[in-house]
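seq:
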Amino acid sequence: MRNKLTTLILLLCMVAVLPCAARAKKPAKSKKSHKTSSRHHKKSEEELVVHHTYDQAFGTDSVSADKLINFAQNLIGTRYRSATSNPQVGFDCSGFVSYVFKNFNFNVPRSSGEFIDVGEKVTYDDARPGDIVIFTSPTNSHRIGHVGIVYSNNDGEFKFIHSTSGKEHGVTITTMDDTYKMRFVQVVRLLKRNDVMLASQ
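struct:
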């Protein structure tokens, strides 16, 4: 009888111990949060600055001023819209000029200030249709802020086609007046055929 009682006690102890073993304490999760570093890598001061060189693409030597001006004229009436170079939406001044020249495969900048670094600089008197005319900003005489395409330059009358935020508020042809003359900076030439025509005179 005593043996049976001893066996029964042992069995009860084993039953009591097993659940305790099953509920053994799991290791606590680390409360440390793995923060993602928000530190950005700063550019090295010795990093080389890349300067864009705008060269003419293959085949542009054959582009005539007539073709370029006719294409530009078809855009007259397109509304002015800042920071845009899409005829369906509108043009700002440099957006218009870059759109016209890119249609003929010229690699030109998008910003008006960068047009001073393209092509060949020519004098005001030697400007021809298809050349690019550059002006200062209407609000800052020390900064380039407007560009257009020379439309004509005959007998002292200089006209250019451009996208203006003025009363026309879009692509139009404007005669060079005293206000624009005060803002005039430079004429630059991308059309090689204009050079050929000038040399033959």
